[in-house]
Structure formats: structure tokens, C-alpha cells
Automatic annotation (TrEMBL):
Name under which the protein is recorded: SH3 domain binding glutamate-rich protein
Biased segments, Basic and acidic residues type: 106-118
Bias (Acidic residues): 119-205
One Pfam short name: SH3BGR
Alphabetical list of InterPro entries matching this protein: Glut_rich_SH3-bd, SH3BGR, Thioredoxin-like_sf
Region (Disordered): 93-205
Organism: Oryzias latipes (Japanese rice fish)
Family statement drawn from the similarity comment of this UniProt entry: Belongs to the SH3BGR family.
Length: 205
């Protein structure tokens, strides 16, 4: 795989020259093999670059400016996307190259695998959290049921006590009535006896 960097050696734009220099200097620092293709002196390079830059990546006027970077026939990007990849420590991914040993950049496969594992871990954590939440709800439900049962028992005991008290009162009332009846009978008997004695006295006289 050959990295192709399309440049304009005789560009009159200071900004374009600076961008081109930034790209090649960084590639040199990374020791990435690349080929410089001059579009200022070679019409074929100019036409090939213009034809192979994707339409959505071209500016409004339809003419892409250098530097433009390719991996063989595959378009990598322009200076802005290269700069973003450099800031994200993802230049090898931008170029479509595997990171060399000792590089801080994580390969695309590992990134995707890592993100997939992270999603699985998040799903497991959510599942555990839901399980714990369900268990807590069950415990709360049991906790709510226990006081309700205790209240029912207390109410039942209260009703029994009330019934016993009512029964005791009824028995007392019955006893009082019985005593009152006995007293009335005794008084009536005494009155009858007195009347009988008075009648006997009258007859004796």
C-alpha cells in the first residue's frame, strides 16, 4: 500500500504551502512511506486527483485544492481531515494503515471490539441494576405487607377485647337485674307478712 500525497510545488498560496509542509513533515516524523505527486507540473496528476476526490468532499466550485491524500486508489482526505486525525491520535486509521508496534493508536478492529465489549458490559450492569431494583421492590412490598398484617392482628385483638368487655358488662347488668329482682321479691314478701300480721291483730281484737 502506497500513500499518495498530491501537492502543488509552485503554488502561490502561502496557506496551501504551509498545509502541504505540515502533512509531509508529520508523515516523515511517523516514518510513513509516501509518494509526492505534483499537480502543478503534471496534468495527469491534476486530472487524476480531481476525478478521484469524492463529490461530497469537493468544495462548492468542484475543484479540490492540495494537499489531497490517498492510499493507492482509496481516498483518505484533505488537510482538514488529516489534521483532525492527528489531533485524535488516529493518523494510521486515517491513512488505512495498521499502527506499528509501540504506537499509542488503537487499531480499528480493537476499537470496534472494545466499544462492543463496553456496550455488553453496560448492558450487564443495567441488567444487574434492574435485578437489584426488582429485589428491592419485592423487599419493600414484603415490608409493606408485614405492617398491614400486624395491623390486622391488632384490630382482631382489639375486637376480641371489646367483645370480652361487652360480655362482662352484660353479665354485670344481668347480675344487677337479678339482685334487684330478688330484693323486690324480698320486699314484697315482707310487705305481705306485715299485712298478714296486722290482719291477725285486727281479728284478735
Amino acid at each position: 500500500m502506497v500513500i499518495k500525497v498530491f501537492l502543488a510545488s509552485s503554488s502561490g498560496s502561502t496557506a496551501i504551502k504551509k498545509k502541504q509542509q505540515d502533512v509531509v513533515s508529520f508523515l516523515d516524523a511517523l516514518k510513513v512511506d509516501y509518494t509526492e505527486l505534483d499537480i502543478a507540473c503534471n496534468e495527469q496528476n491534476r486530472m487524476w486527483m480531481r476525478q478521484n476526490v469524492p463529490e461530497e468532499k469537493k468544495p462548492p466550485n468542484g475543484i479540490p485544492l492540495p494537499p489531497q491524500i490517498f492510499n493507492e486508489e482509496s481516498y483518505c482526505g484533505d488537510y482538514e481531515t488529516f489534521f483532525d486525525a492527528k489531533e485524535d491520535n488516529a493518523v494510521y486509521t486515517f491513512l488505512g494503515l495498521p499502527p506499528p508496534p509501540g504506537s499509542k493508536e488503537v487499531p480499528v478492529e480493537e476499537r470496534n471490539g472494545g466499544s462492543h465489549r463496553e456496550e455488553e458490559e453496560e448492558e450487564e450492569e443495567e441488567g444487574q441494576a434492574e435485578g437489584e431494583s426488582g429485589q428491592a421492590d419485592d423487599e419493600e412490598t414484603e415490608g409493606d405487607t408485614a405492617p398491614a398484617e400486624e395491623e390486622d392482628e391488632e384490630e382482631a385483638e382489639g375486637e376480641e377485647d371489646h367483645n370480652e368487655e361487652a360480655q362482662a358488662e352484660e353479665e354485670e347488668d344481668q347480675e344487677r337485674e337479678d339482685l334487684q329482682s330478688e330484693e323486690e321479691e324480698e320486699l314484697q314478701q315482707l310487705e305481705e307478712e306485715e299485712d298478714a300480721e296486722e290482719q291477725e291483730e285486727d281479728e284478735a281484737e
